[in-house]
Amino acid sequence: MADIALTEADATAQRAARAETTRRAGRGDARFHVLTWLAAAAVLLIFAGVIISLVIGSIPAFKAFGFSFLTSSAWNPTSNIFGGLPSIYGTLVTSFLAMLLAVPVGIGIAIFLTELCPRPLRRPIGIAIELLAGIPSIIYGIWGLFVFAPWLQAHVQQPIIDATDGIPLIGSLLGGAPYGIGVFTAALILSIMVLPFISAVTRDVFETVPTMLKEATYGLGCTTWEVMWRVVLPYARSGVIGGAMLALGRALGETMAVTFVIGNAHTIDASLFAPGTTISATIANEFTEATGALYTSSLIFLGLILFFITFIVLAFAQWMLLALERQGGTK
Amino acid sequence: MIVSKGLYLRRRIVNGVFITLSIAAALFGLVWLAFILSALISQGIVALSPMLFTHSTPPPGQPGGLLNAIIGSVLMSVMAVVLGTPIGLFAGTYLAEYGKHTGFAFVVRFVNDILLSAPSIVTGLFIYEIVVLPMGHFSAWAGTLSLMVIVIPVVVRTTENMLILVPNGLREAASALGAPMSFVIRAVTWQAAKAGIITGVLLAIARISGETAPLLFTALNNQFLSTNLNAPIASLPAVIFQYALSPYDDWHRLAWAGALLITATVLTLSILARLLENKRN
């Protein structure tokens, strides 16, 4: 009898202990859940913080100049008159030129890696191209300033200027003096920098194209070009556009490489070889030296404009890539 | 007959041109890599000396090294990773394990991917507004926080990607044994995805070690050796920026040496991350 009573008491204690353990585990479980939720909310908080702080910081400049800040090309710190047009123009032009070169070349690399490259070489070449994305921006900058710009000045710009001299439009677009540094150089370096983003995304979406589709097209007697142009590219279209937009987002906000080679001149010149500036280069060059609240505020206003432009481009990129994912899901 | 022969020829020519262009595109990419790395090595090697690691940045015309910049960079990077990794890890875990397809998780994922590619100079302005202005001066803390803002999205993205790859059978087996969800995540899911998560952290370190723009107006720069978190601090990228744009040849040499150091670090980290990834596969 005594034994049984002891066992029953034991069992009750054990049940209580077990219930306590379960409760504690439950509490720990809930705490962990809340912790992860807080971390996720922190990401939103950072994003909101960026927007709010930029908006608040740019209020003085907006009050002083209003929307004419976007269309004015005056930039005169001594008389406190600022306009963002040259910076905005430089940002858009360098990025546009960079994409003009990087998109076809990036797609070409992706095609080479998925269709043409001998199998043992695929990984090493793929990794080498991706290393271009790993090299920090400032390295492109110092290389661009000391090595690339002088080389470009002597071997590319001078011959082009000589060759196009006198031709209307093109002559002025590619005219002037060969400075070495300038919009053209910045755009070239940008295109090298974003190349790996385009080729990596494009290669990944090319690999999602069902082999069956490609083999069927080859079976009809199509050439590699026809398979890529008529089957693979249409199938992977939204992914390719998404990758290009992602790269454009990077190019728009790229700072150090551009700051070294663009010349930091607040002018809009007809010639692509002339020095110019971009939003990010203006901020990087002038922010710590900006004296006066209005100067600082104008630079932050430029930052807000840059953030707005990149946000739209990146959101569009995501939307395209999401569409691709859904397409993959329904397959 | 003749018509189809012409057609064949035209298709063959188009195809040949296209293949040539693709190969040229790949060569184009590789040539730039070789061009940059060779310039970096030829200019950087001659500037390497033991003094780089024992002396701080000199005034023009005097011998010196990069000790203060190296220490500043390492200090801020380590702190940014130590502070940013847990936040990124937890947020990534939330997306993969709890949030999944909820609207909140969708928004966080979207915003995170925007932050991942957002211009770093803008996040630098953000830290300037919320840290430097209230404190009244530039500081290593501000630099650390601006790097942390860059670390978090990288870690969130890789953590989520890696956790999704963990087979559900593992989670179910652990849950069937009676383990609470948080325990399953910590003891099973994280363990299974460990290599991938570490890869993400390595990539984040690689990303911030060359980051310059946000440091210019958060940590500023410092000519002297300092480990004071409340004072401006030197960093390799900021020193390279300053020295490369100076008119002095010996400063240029130091800038090249710094550039070589950064690139070697970043490329080593990227290759390590890749090796780790391969091992997992």
Q: How far do the termini of chain B sit from each other?
A: 53 Å
Strand order of the largest sheet of chain A: 1-2
Oligomer: heterodimer
The helix fraction of chain A, in percent, is over 70%
What is the rounded distance between the termini of chain A? 69 Å
Alpha-beta content class of chain B: mainly alpha
Give the SSE order of chain B as H and E letters: HHHHHHHHHHH
**Series of H and E elements of chain A:** HEEHHHHHHHHHHH
Low-confidence stretches of chain B: none
Q: Give me the secondary-structure category of chain A.
A: mainly alpha
What form of chain B results from the Cα inertia axes? globular
- The radius of gyration of chain B is 24 Å
Number of strands of chain A: 2
Average pLDDT taken over every residue of chain B: 92
Low-pLDDT residue intervals, each spanning 5 or more residues of chain A: none
Radius of gyration of chain A: 28 Å
